[in-house]
Design a protein that fits this description.
The protein has 94 residues and is α+β, with helices and mostly antiparallel strands. The chain has 2 helices and 5 strands; from the N terminus they run E-H-H-E-E-E-E. The protein has a single domain (5-91), classed as YaeB-like fold.
Length: 94
């Protein structure tokens, strides 16, 4: 069974803003960013335990992050019994 992946509203907003900034920098770059986010999300969905724990967050909370290939961003998520919740699309400084 595939665990559903749900973006929190704040993560959606961060994703949209970052994609828009990249698209303004260079046409097509925002689309490439979104593609890499989708690839990262699929990896998280398939292997939720593979992401690195987040520094300074208690390990028992289970918050993790996964890098976005080719961009200085991470997808921050929390794996729950019913879903993987994407909490943020954040710059590298975690």
């Amino acid at each position: 069974m595939v665990t559903p992946l749900q973006f929190e509203a704040e993560a959606e907003r961060e994703l949209d803003e970052a994609a828009q900034r990249y698209e303004e920098q260079r046409p097509g770059l925002g689309k490439r960013f979104l593609h890499e986010i989708e690839s990262t999300a699929e990896q998280i969905r398939r292997f939720p335990g593979a992401g690195a724990p987040i520094k300074h967050v208690p390990a028992d909370l289970g918050a993790r992050h996964a890098p976005v290939k080719g961009f200085p961003y991470h997808v921050v998520y929390l794996s729950t019994p019913n879903a993987i919740r994407v909490l943020a699309v954040a710059p590298h400084a975690l």
